[in-house]
């Protein structure tokens, strides 16, 4: 069985290191001339799939923007996931789940069991009930070739107070998360299947990412103010593992399909220039 890390490595080689988020903000639906309802949501997603599904390595639907429409919104998420998989991009569902282990097992079956309607290649997860409370996700991902991206150093300014707090062993909370994920990726050949979320906005925090051997999802580019050049400061020697992620910056170019493609192409070129300059 091919692992998520292997599939991601190949997708990044073939399509370039870029993740584009599907974040149908109410303001974006209006800007695209769509109604802020399930019909608008569906049209928005169909356009993004048509524009980017066959050319971007990873597409990251943000679950919150679907959940806000209830069951019908989740049905759009389901069909968007299916369309993305058919178009060849990997699907990373940004859902940031975390709970006690027995409940995490249910989240794992919801997203990482191939028989689930919401089955995706990888999910984001929150480690704040303890990294190993996420073990059922790690185990199901390993069984079915899925991936899990765990929050480490998030792009929002509020994250630092929790994530950079120092524990009894002298490590920050974030470094403890980083070290646990590095353990899970031990022995990975190309790229491990367990990744971290590290915001492109955070500057040089002195955290050691060198042993992770897994993908480093970098949100915060564009709308949150970080530029591709910031990736060099944040990631240093770990740049080869970085998967830059843009949502609004690219989506603002819609609804024209060619304009969306051009925006994604520009984002990829900027990131390549920053990543390859290492
Ligand atoms: O630290 C994090 C973790 C996740 N996100 C998510 O990424 C996108 C960012 O959207 P932009 O429009 O590119 O700002 C969004 O879905 C966030 O929930 C993050 O920003 N930071």
TrEMBL record:
- Tell me which residues this entry annotates as catalytic: 96
- GO:BP terms for this protein? 'de novo' pyrimidine nucleobase biosynthetic process; 'de novo' UMP biosynthetic process
Which pathway does the UniProt entry assign to this protein?
A: Pyrimidine metabolism; UMP biosynthesis via de novo pathway; UMP from orotate: step 2/2
Q: Which residues form a coiled coil?
A: none
Query: Which Pfam families has this protein been placed in?
Result: OMPdecase (PF00215)
InterPro entries in the record, alphabetically?
Answer: Aldolase_TIM, OMPdecase_AS, OMPdecase_type-2, OMPdeCOase_dom, RibuloseP-bd_barrel
SUPFAM superfamilies per UniProt? Ribulose-phoshate binding barrel (SSF51366)
Catalytic activity field:
orotidine 5'-phosphate + H(+) = UMP + CO2
Question: What enzyme category does the UniProt record give?
Answer: lyase
Keyword Lyase in the entry? The reply is yes
Organism domain of life = Bacteria
Q: Does the keyword Cell membrane apply?
A: no
Keywords (A to Z) from UniProt: Decarboxylase, Lyase, Pyrimidine biosynthesis
User: Which residues are in the Orotidine 5'-phosphate decarboxylase domain?
Assistant: 17-263
Transmembrane region positions?
A: none
Recorded family membership: Belongs to the OMP decarboxylase family. Type 2 subfamily.
Family annotation (PANTHER family): OROTIDINE 5'-PHOSPHATE DECARBOXYLASE
Q: Which HAMAP family match?
A: OMPdecase_type2 (MF_01215)
Please give the name of this protein: Orotidine 5'-phosphate decarboxylase
Q: What species was this sequence derived from? A: Micromonospora haikouensis
Gene transcribed to yield this protein: pyrF
């Amino acid at each position: 069985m091919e692992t998520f890390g292997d599939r991601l490595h190949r997708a990044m080689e073939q399509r370039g290191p870029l993740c584009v988020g599907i974040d149908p903000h109410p303001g974006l639906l209006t800007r695209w001339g769509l109604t802020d309802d399930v019909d608008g949501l569906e049209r928005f997603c169909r356009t993004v799939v048509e524009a980017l599904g066959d050319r971007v390595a990873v597409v990251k639907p943000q679950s919150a923007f679907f959940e806000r429409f209830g069951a019908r919104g989740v049905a759009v998420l389901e069909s968007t996931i299916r369309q993305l998989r058919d178009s060849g991009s990997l699907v990373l569902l940004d859902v940031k789940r975390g709970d006690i282990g027995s409940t995490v097992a249910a989240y794992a079956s919801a997203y990482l069991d191939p028989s689930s309607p919401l089955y995706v290649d990888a999910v984001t997860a929150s480690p704040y009930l303890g990294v190993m409370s996420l073990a059922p996700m790690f185990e199901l991902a390993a069984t079915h070739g899925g991936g899990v991206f765990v929050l480490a150093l998030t792009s929002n300014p509020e994250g630092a107070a929790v994530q950079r707090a120092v524990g009894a062993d002298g490590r920050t909370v974030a470094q403890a998360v980083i070290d646990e994920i590095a353990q899970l990726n031990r022995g990975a050949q190309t790229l491990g299947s367990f990744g971290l979320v590290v915001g492109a906005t955070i500057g040089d925090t002195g955290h050691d990412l060198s042993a992770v051997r897994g993908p480093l999802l970098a949100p915060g580019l564009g709308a949150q103010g970080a530029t591709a050049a910031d990736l060099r400061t944040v990631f240093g020697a770990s740049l080869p593992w970085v998967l830059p992620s843009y949502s609004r910056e690219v989506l603002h170019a819609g609804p024209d399909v060619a304009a969306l493609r051009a925006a994604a192409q520009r984002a990829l070129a900027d990131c390549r220039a920053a990543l390859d300059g290492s």
